[in-house]
């Protein structure tokens, strides 16, 4: 029965709610945001008191996503099924979290026929700010209180209270 409800809410989200205007639209933005939040509360594995699910956020089936209190997913973000988002996480538009890569070990076989690596879990700890168009590679841990500058490509774990940016992302400074 739970899977049936999940499917119904996935259809409701992807068929209707994701296309509603943005959460910050004057007058009705909060209502549109509430509808999207209502859907994901029935889709995600674990859901806190979410602050924002903005328009066109994509999360596959959402089956194994966990999101903590007062966290949000920005417009046009892509969040794979195996992502854990802590409390107080701010995610700007177009954040892209990747959960696997293509295998390219054998030069005698075209890469498109070598398959993919197993999916990895990405963890975003509490009180993080992910700037616009951040890209996180598979299996990264974003430490508590970190800030990822807009456009950063995260190829390594980010230590707590770090501010990182660039491609690949490098430490800019520590917050603490």
What is the residue-mean pLDDT, rounded to a whole number?
A: 97
User: SSE order, as H and E?
Assistant: HHEEEEEEEEEEEEEEE
- The strand line-up of the biggest sheet is 1-3-5-8-11
Q: Which percent band covers the strand fraction?
A: 15-25%
Q: Sketch the major β-sheet.
A: 5 strands, parallel
The number of strands is 15
Instruction: Round the Cα radius of gyration to an integer and report it.
Output: 17 Å
Helix content bin: 10-25%
Helical region count? 2
What does this structure look like?
This protein has 2 helices and 15 strands. A hairpin with a 4-residue loop joins strand 14 (162-165) and strand 15. 15% of the residues lie in helices and 21% in strands. The strands form 4 sheets. Strands 1-3-5-8-11 form a 5-stranded parallel beta sheet, with no helix packed on it. It has a 5-stranded mixed beta sheet with strand order 6-9-12-14-15, with no helix packed on it. A 3-stranded parallel beta sheet has the order 7-10-13, with no helix packed on it. The protein has 176 residues and is α/β, with parallel strands linked by helices. The protein has helices at 2-15, 29-41; strands at 46-47, 52-53, 66-67, 72-73, 83-85, 90-91, 96-97, 122-124, 129-130, 135-136, 141-142, 147-148, 153-154, 162-165, 170-174. The model has no long low-confidence stretch (mean pLDDT 97). The relative contact order is 0.10.
